[in-house]
Amino acid sequence: MIRFIASRLLRAALTVIAVMTFAFVVLRLSGDPAQVLLGPDVPQSVLLAFRDRWGLDDPILTQYFSYMHAMFQGDFGLSMRDRSPAIDLVLQRVPATLELTIPALILQLCFGIPAGIYAALKRGTIADRGVITIAIIGFTVPSFVMGLLLVLIFSVNLGYLPSGGSSTLQHAILPIITMSIGGIGVLARFSRSAMIEVMGQPYIRTATAKGLKWRDVVRNHALPNAAVPIVTIVGFMVGSLIAGAIIVETIFSWPGMGRLLIVSVTNRDLAVVQCILLLVAAVMVVSNLIVDVLYGWLDPRLRNTPAAH
Amino acid sequence: MTALLEADSLVRIYETRRGLLARPTPVRAVDGVSLQVAAGETLGVVGESGSGKSTLGRMLLGIDAAQDGAVRIGGKPMPAFGSPDWRALRARIQMIYQDPLSALDRRLGIADQLREPLEIHQIGTTNDRNQRVHDVMHSVGLRPDQADKFPHELSGGQRQRVVIARALMTDPDLLVCDEPVSALDVSIQAQVVNLLADLQREKGLGMVFISHDLKVVRNLCDRVAVMYLGRIVEEGSADEIFAYPKHPYTQALVSSVPQPGRALTRRIILQGEPPDPANRPAGCAFHPRCQHAEDICRRDVPQLRKVARDRNAACHLLTPSNAALPLA
Amino acid sequence: MPRTGPAKADRCRARLYKLPRLFGSQAHRARPGELHPIRKKKMSNLIEIRDLRVAFDGVAVLHGIDLDVAPGEALGLVGESGCGKSVTWLAALGLLPDKAHITGSVRLETQELSGAPRQALERIRGGRIAMIFQDPSSALNPVIRVGRQICEALKLHRRLTGAAAKTEALRLMDLVGIPDARNRFDLYTHEFSGGQAQRLMIAIALAGEPDLLIADEPTTALDATIQAQILDLLVTLRREMAMAMVFISHDLAAVSQVCERVCVMYAGKIVEQGPVTQLFNAPRHPYTRGLFDAIPRLTGPRQRLIPIPGTVPDPRHLPDGCPFSPRCARVQSFCTTQRPDLLPQPDGRQLACAYPVPLAPIAKNTAQKQKIYQ
């Protein structure tokens, strides 16, 4: 088990470093931070001074190594806008993002999975088709369209809910719903197909032939098997939640990490962008690691046990 | 006269992991198998799961490389897998698999699939190829109107005929059949087995027939090799080996085939499970389940040696002068 | 004392009823040697199936099955793929999907199973009729420990929980021949071989102390030497527990080892039925005859196999008259227009054929067999 986790952690660390490197290179190739931050009317000398101070004219490898060196010492660079430590800026915004993503994830799990399972058990009926249709609408409509639509309906026309800002609980409702709809659709669809496949397996017939009540067959025999593919999908969805956060926070003016990312990328605020990417990569990798470990727990065939003789 | 196919002390080892973290353990799927097939002869290879018979079949075709030992076709060594020589050799040796549905391409009509081997080996002109497809279809008992059907539109027996037809397209010298009739109903099995026997007789093919079904092997094959855990434990003529099995495993195998009229109580019921190649017993691989096992059996691996006229067996307790163990 | 027959079955049953049970028909105790009280009234059948018909999406797959199983009897059900031998019993137990259309009557002693409400069927399944399936490694749940799967059945039918359930589960595992049961109780399905998995399925089936065990191709997916073990086990268990058994298989010889009576099915109907020895010595339906002839022999001289020409008909396009007529060597004009009914014969068997093979012993060689076909 130790070797397993160790090898996974190593792989995780390498992934994060790869992401960082990629971002590093792309950011530096894609535009001049000095120009963007200081505006187009600034004289050349000021630009040069700026670039010199931030080391932007050094060869890219030098910049890379000095960044990595600093990072391993806990220094994630300074924001080019206000010279405060990038990491502080980012961490300040994390709670706001969590206020959206965690409830969204919970909603996705609580609505998506049961909907999919229900549809699978009632396969072929109108209920099944209804769930599938709603699920498809949910995940094909892009989140910004969905967000704007919800704002239009509930804020502008009906006036029930505020359209922006983050001062009260009410402000959070629309963003959370927007973030969770896509995932609910995806989870419903996947849970349904996972469940349909499990219900067709021979051991379900054996369980029914034992005389178990139908709900016990579903609960004790089918669900534990369907859990394995469903857990895989949930692992992926954590990643898409973070991506969704970017769009949703922008639409709803929610002061979270996603908005910070947009602003920083626009301003080529390199350190902040890298810091956010590092955090996101770490979260993705950790969630996949958890999924891998959960697999072993859920499916005994994947564990290290010798065959009985 | 050189045999059509000769295998000499074939060994195949593959690495397997028991679970996610264990060190890989080497598994000897085939452990020193030698055999020969002459043109026009059918060799049956029987055994249960873990015996290595399917791996042996693939090694005879050159699909699985041998870690030790050699395979020779017509006296010449088997070329490496994937090399141009090996691909050219495919026209002479063909394989027939157990599940015809997965052996055929779902999206091609049968005639197209039958024509493919000719196109690959560039045999004949277009007209020749079409004619050959027609002829071979006829010889396996398929109707011309089935030429454009897809595999899923045919029955199991018909699909297996298509697989056999496809194998015959290039007029091979040797057929390796791995459980070709196991998935078929009894009445269809008989049809396909007869077909194989007829084709072999007409064309003088050599055939290796791998199966777990002793009854079919007895009626189709000239010679039989019984495998247990990667080694041949007994070989001889089909007429004799099932009527007078000498090795205790062969005796148990023959006895396990239900025969109407012979009660269960007169059978030898082996205790224990078919062995795991990853967990090979010391000495004779069969000794944990053998009722005659003695000390030497637990220590030394018996070699395959002659124990009677036209019979070889690998058992310490069988010698040419004492080639009969009492059936328990 | 007779070795077989109703008296022995009763003695076994008497012994069985003496075993400690939390639930038991205490009122139906029988003393050894005495005929069981219920059977004193009437020699009734355990199962009576009358005119069972099953259709999927409008396509009929069973065309009226009539079948009886007496208590303690071993019945074999033989046929090739698609003949409906499994469907018959899946329909009887209500295990077919809802879209299957089932008509006809299936009686378990006095209780009607066909169309019975779900709760009634759930009580019967496992408790009075148990079923084991082909390919045991996939028929057991891969993520639940096997001990727990056995205890689940014990809790359901015998209200045993906790330590009592575990003890009984271990006893069952020993009974079916799982070595070192105590240490294997908490293992998972994939850690057992195919033969052991089938034994576990049998243990689960026995947990409910059923009156009837339906074994649907229990040995087909197993190695030859393991098949022999499992057949041996089934015979022993049946003898010890005086359980009735229905053995479904395509392997005629295996069926003859285990069963007293055999039904041969073709295209959704029973074509011949009778005691094993009678059927095996002199099969009269041309299909039964063809099946026997098509089976290769292990002993005796090497022979060319004798197939039955043609293939099993598609249930959507059954021929008129007798479904076997296109393949039958004895077909007459009557056969292509009228479907023969399953009728009792003077020698005790039942036969659905208008021109059966005349009573004669099995041909010894190919030449003789072909002569019979003429």
Description:
Chain A is 78% helix and 0% strand. In chain A, helix 1 runs antiparallel to helix 12. Chain A is flat and about 85 Å long. In chain A, 33% of the residues are buried. The C terminus of chain A is likely disordered. The longest helix of chain B is centred in the middle third of the chain and has 18 residues. Chain B is an alpha/beta fold and 328 residues long. Chain B is built from eleven helices and twelve strands. Chain C folds into three domains: 36 residues, no CATH class; 213 residues, Rossmann fold (3-Layer(aba) Sandwich), CATH 3.40.50.300; 95 residues, no CATH class. Helices cover 35% and strands 18% of the residues of chain C. Chain C has 14 helices and twelve strands. Chain C has an eight-stranded mixed sheet, sandwiched between helices. In chain C, strand 7, helix 10 and strand 8 form a beta-alpha-beta unit. About 7% of the residues of chain C have low confidence. Chains in contact: A-B, A-C, B-C.
Name its key features.
heterotrimer; A: 309 residues; mainly alpha; MetI-like fold; 2 domains; 12 helices; flat; disordered C terminus; C: 374 residues; Rossmann fold
Summarize the structure.
Chain A has 309 residues and is mostly helical. In chain A, 78% of the residues lie in helices and 0% in strands.
Radius of gyration of chain B in whole Å, from Cα? Answer: 21 Å
SSE topology string of chain C? HHEEEHEEHEHHHHHEHEHEEHHEEH
Q: What's the number of domains of chain C?
A: 3
Beta-strand percentage range of chain C = 15-25%
Largest sheet of chain C: 8 strands, mixed
Count the E strands of chain C: 12
And the CATH topology of the largest domain in chain B? Answer: Rossmann fold
Largest interface: B-C, 44 and 44 residues
The N- and C-terminal alpha carbons of chain B lie at a distance of 42 Å
